[in-house]
Structures are given as structure tokens and as C-alpha cells.
UniProtKB/TrEMBL annotation:
Domain comment, as recorded: The middle region has homology to RecA with ATPase motifs including the RadA KNRFG motif, while the C-terminus is homologous to Lon protease.
Organismal lineage: Bacteria, Bacillati, Actinomycetota, Actinomycetes, Micrococcales
Function: DNA-dependent ATPase involved in processing of recombination intermediates, plays a role in repairing DNA breaks. Stimulates the branch migration of RecA-mediated strand transfer reactions, allowing the 3' invading strand to extend heteroduplex DNA faster. Binds ssDNA in the presence of ADP but not other nucleotides, has ATPase activity that is stimulated by ssDNA and various branched DNA structures, but inhibited by SSB. Does not have RecA's homology-searching function. Plays a role in repairing double-strand DNA breaks, probably involving stabilizing or processing branched DNA or blocked replication forks.
Span(s) of short sequence motif RadA KNRFG motif: 255-259
Protein name as catalogued: DNA repair protein RadA
Database matches in PANTHER family: DNA REPAIR PROTEIN RADA, DNA REPAIR PROTEIN RADA-LIKE PROTEIN
Organism: Amnibacterium soli
All copies of domain RecA family profile, residue ranges: 69-218
Length: 443
């Protein structure tokens, strides 16, 4: 008599990018929209049996959990500490992503130097550059320190061995997509490799209370390269943004288990390295405020930070049957809408037959609706040839009916405007666009 063999429980299929599961194979994951990422999952071995929990790992009442293990450590970069919520938490894993050449390695090398200068031992693992290249950048930016240890490795096993040998208080890996391990299949940077490397480094960080900073590559659409599970494994995800044509850089936290996600850090890239900008109020203003037509100051919000930004507009008679619209730092569709509103409700009938140019000072990009009033007033000033008073700052959203709606967090914007010497903040107290144009221009 034949004896029936026991079969392992089928586990179906699993997406290698985000971990989504399904009973049937599909070519595209409906969760993360990745193609070819759904693979057959490992069969279940059986029901997991409970084990005795040792005393050191038993659950505790929340009031008995000590707080000394989560004391933050300063990085030496005040703007980065602002984004992280006050510093680096021991045992945390922080992922810093950004486009190539934006300055991720320069920023983290500066952090490594500051922490090493405080007496802590720092291990900087460069999987993309040689030791000589890192040393050359350190000399150029003045970030040499005897407590800063360098390693150029791409093998995860060797990286873990370096951590055992150096025994650092901070580890920086540049970058996580270039480190690979023999325990995972695929090439370096593939979903399986990135997931295994990140999981191993996270395990080491938690076991040793060792903070680890990871550099992450991004795809052409700005998303973090690799599986989506990478963002779930780490504790903090920060994006490093900036235009190569300008010196300004922003660091934003899109995930933070230990602090807020609405803080923004400002940095300035120079030939000597990178420096935090604690008060960026003068970076986005020119000297022509109040003297030249076509300029208007708005108080924009970058996270929790209120920043004055100058919007400039130029309106000239078009020589083409199809007038041009050129924008820099603002949304072109939004400007087109404001031009139509100015024609209908602002009394500027001939602006639709002109070439319109709108730009922000300093290369900053404004996307919030509160910048509508500044764009409209700059256009109105350019058309009439009357400059806006130098003591005026504005903020407000403009509707299709020509009404001015109050901007969010108006009190914070008003406080920043008064701190900078602007005695008049237009927007919340005006209801119609035509009234705002009359109130803003010089008499």
C-alpha cells in the first residue's frame, strides 16, 4: 500500500520589490507597479512553534523601559540635526538619497569629520571611490580627522569585518546599492542584493546600538533605486535636493521614526565643501526690491521654515501670433491660469497678447498655492510699470473668480515677514485681486 507523502504548504507568489503576495503569478505587481518582480515564494515549512523567552528579552511595561538608550547624538551639522529631530538616535539606520552630483558624499564626509572631532570613532565605507579619492575630497573640504577611518569595500562580509575590527560609534556606507553579498542572488544593486545588504546592516545597528548612515541612488524619476522594502527597513529616509546650477541644497525627511517629517535643512555648496545655512532669508532676494517694476516678495514655507522669496516677472509685446510663456521655479500651468484671471478680474486686458517670463531668485522652486498672489502682483507691476513698495510682502491663493484666499499657516508667515522688516503683509486682509494690485504698488 502506497504511503501518501506530505507536501509543503504552497506560499504562492511574492513581489521582490514591495513584498506583496498573491496566489497566482502576474506580470506586473499591482501594489508597486513593477514589472517582472513577482516570483514564486518559498513554501511554508509548517506551523511555527512557541519557544521560551529569556529574561533579557521578556516584554516590559512601557513605563519601565529606560530612555538612556535613545539619547540623540549631534552630527555637527545643525541643519541636518534639525531634519533628524535633534540628532542621530543610537541603533538607527538613516538612508540619504539624491541625484548624482548633488553632494551626498560631501555632506556625509563632513558629518563624519564633525563626529570624529568630538572624539567618536567613525568608519566611512566607500564602495564607489578609492581611498585616495576620498582622501583628496577630505583635504579639499578640510574634513581630515585622526578618528575617521576609511575603507573601500563592496563585499558585505568584509564591511562587517571592518566594523568588528574598528569598533566605530558611527558607520557611513556610500552607497548601499553598490555593496553585495554572496548570500543573495543577482548583481549588486538588484532587489535581492539591496534587501539582504540593508537587512544585515540594520541587524548590526540594532544589536550594537550603532547608528548607520546609508547613501541611496535614485532612478530617473527621482525614486529610491532598489526594492521598496528598503524604505521600510530603515528608520529615517531623507532626500537631498538641489539644482546643479545653484549652490543651494535642501534636505527633507520623508520618513522619520524619531522625529517630524516636515522639517527642511538648508545647505550651500561652495568650493571648500558644504555649509549649513541657518538663516536663508537673504538667498532668494535681489537688490531691486521696491525700485524696479515686476518684482514681488512672498513668504514661502519649506517644511516648518518660513523663507522670503522674490518672484520676478517680465512682460513684453509679442512679435509672434503665439505669445511665449517661460517660467523658472514656478508651475507654468499655474502661471497660465493667473494670466487668465488677471485679464478677467485684474484689469490687465492686453497681457494675453504679450510674452510673459516669470522666475524666482536663487533657483528655489515654489509649488504651494500661496505664491499665487506674488506671481499676480509681479505680473501686474510689470505691465503697469509701477514698482511694488519695498516694505510689502504677500501670500495668498487666487481663485478663478479673482478672490484672494488666505494662505495656510498665515501667522507663521506674518511673524517671519515682521522679523525681516516688512511692515505690510498683503493677502489675508484683501478679498479682490484688483484691490491687491492697487495696494501693493508705489504711490
Amino acid at each position: 500500500m502506497a504511503v501518501a507523502r506530505s507536501r509543503p504548504t504552497p506560499a504562492g507568489y511574492r513581489c521582490a520589490e514591495c513584498g506583496w503576495r498573491t496566489a497566482k503569478w502576474v506580470g506586473r505587481c499591482p501594489e508597486c507597479q513593477a514589472w517582472g518582480s513577482v516570483q514564486e515564494a518559498e513554501p511554508a515549512a509548517g506551523r511555527v512553534q512557541a519557544v521560551a523567552v529569556p529574561a533579557s528579552r521578556q516584554a516590559k511595561p512601557i513605563g519601565e523601559v529606560p530612555m538612556d538608550t535613545v539619547q540623540r547624538r549631534r552630527t555637527g551639522e545643525s541643519e541636518l540635526d534639525r531634519v533628524l529631530g535633534g540628532g542621530v538616535v543610537p541603533g538607527s539606520v538613516i538612508l540619504l538619497s539624491g541625484e548624482p552630483g548633488v553632494g551626498k558624499s560631501t555632506l556625509l564626509l563632513a558629518v563624519a569629520s564633525h563626529v570624529a572631532a568630538m572624539g567618536a570613532r567613525v568608519l566611512y565605507v566607500s564602495a564607489e571611490e578609492s581611498l585616495g579619492q576620498v582622501r583628496m575630497r577630505a583635504e579639499r573640504t578640510g574634513t581630515l580627522s585622526p578618528n575617521l577611518w576609511l575603507s573601500a569595500e563592496t563585499d558585505l562580509a568584509v564591511v562587517l569585518g571592518q566594523i568588528d575590527q574598528v569598533e566605530p560609534q558611527l558607520v557611513i556606507v556610500d552607497s548601499v546599492q553598490t555593496v553585495s553579498t554572496a548570500d543573495a542572488t543577482g548583481i549588486a544593486g538588484g532587489p535581492g542584493q539591496v534587501r539582504e545588504v540593508a537587512a544585515s546592516l540594520t541587524r548590526v545597528a540594532k544589536e550594537r546600538d550603532l547608528p548607520i548612515l546609508l547613501v541611496g541612488h535614485v532612478t530617473k524619476d527621482g525614486q529610491i533605486a532598489g526594492p521598496r522594502v528598503l524604505e521600510h527597513l530603515v528608520d529615517v529616509v531623507c532626500h537631498f535636493e538641489g539644482d546643479r546650477g545653484t549652490a543651494l541644497r535642501f534636505v527633507r525627511a520623508v520618513k522619520n521614526r524619531f522625529g517630524p517629517t516636515d522639517e527642511v535643512g538648508c545647505f550651500e555648496m561652495t568650493g571648500e565643501g558644504i555649509a549649513g545655512v541657518t538663516d536663508p532669508s537673504g538667498l532668494f532676494l535681489s537688490r531691486s526690491i521696491g525700485t524696479e517694476p515686476g518684482t514681488c516678495v512672498t513668504i514661502a514655507l519649506e517644511g516648518r521654515r518660513a523663507i522670503p522669496v522674490e518672484v520676478q516677472a517680465l512682460v513684453v509685446k509679442s512679435s509672434s501670433p503665439h505669445p511665449r510663456l517661460v517660467v523658472n521655479g514656478v508651475d507654468s500651468a499655474r502661471v497660465s491660469m493667473l494670466i487668465a484671471v488677471l485679464q478677467k478680474h485684474g484689469g490687465l486686458k492686453n497681457i494675453g497678447d504679450s510674452d510673459v517670463y516669470v522666475s524666482t531668485v536663487g533657483g528655489v522652486r515654489l509649488t504651494e498655492p500661496a505664491v499665487d498672489l506674488a506671481i499676480a502682483l509681479a505680473l501686474g507691476s510689470a505691465v503697469t510699470g509701477m514698482p511694488i513698495r519695498g516694505d510689502v510682502a504677500v501670500s495668498g491663493e487666487i481663485s478663478l473668480a479673482g478672490e484672494i484666499r488666505p494662505a495656510n499657516q498665515a501667522a507663521r508667515r506674518e511673524a517671519e515677514a515682521k522679523r525681516l522688516g516688512y511692515t505690510t503683509l498683503l493677502g489675508p486682509d484683501l478679498a479682490r485681486l484688483r484691490d491687491a494690485i492697487v495696494a501693493a504698488v508705489s504711490s
